[in-house]
Amino acid sequence: MFFRVLNQIEEAVISLLLVGITLLVFFEVILRFVFNTGLTWGQEATLYLSAWFVLFGVSYGLKVGAHIGVDAFVQLFSPLGQRLISAIAILLSLVYCGLFIQGAWVYLGKMKRIGIDLEDIPIQTWIAQSILLLGLVMLSIRLLGLFWAVITGKATGFLRNDEAKESMHLAEEIKRGVETP
């Protein structure tokens, strides 16, 4: 239930951010090249929307297996060995996230106390940059879910794209297409 709601929120936010970035950049290009003007806040908004898009996308990418995995070494082991190595990798990833969460918490707290607004948009910096904390918390939640799946035997490791397998599949399709007249 929790992960289903998280998935829906992530997908909705990622979709809105992508549409927002696209429309903002399109509108900015039209203003600059057709009307020889622009939005004073357009570049800064695009920068922050892109940051939110990327940091939301990291946890979603982990969920759907969009990250590239280098697992040639791990594949040499039995499924139990793969699970053990994956569990260690997940724990190290959680430590990494924890360090960044703690750093983001301190940084955002200082930005809130200082009360600085963004350069071109009347929004406080800590609000615009809060994705640092939010994105890493979401990634940690995904890693904890994956850790649970690995230790309970439901998964042997990270979901990932196997680019070598995909490339070989594409090469075979091309070869078949060339061979058949």
Amount of helix: over 70%
- Major sheet summary line: none
Beginning-to-end CA distance, first to last residue: 52 Å
Shape: flat
Approximate strand percentage: under 5%
Listing every helix as H and every strand as E from the N terminus to the C terminus, the arrangement reads HHHHHH
Q: With helices defined by DSSP (H or I, 4 residues minimum), what is the helix count? A: 6
The chain-level structural class is mainly alpha
Radius of gyration: 21 Å
How many distinct beta strands? 0
Which residues form runs of ≥5 with pLDDT under 50?
Answer: none
Average pLDDT for all residues: 89
Count of folded domains: 1
How are the SSEs ordered, and which strands pair?
Layout: H1 2-34, H2 42-64, H3 79-114, H4 125-128, H5 131-151, H6 163-179
Helix pairs in contact: 1-2, 2-5, 3-5
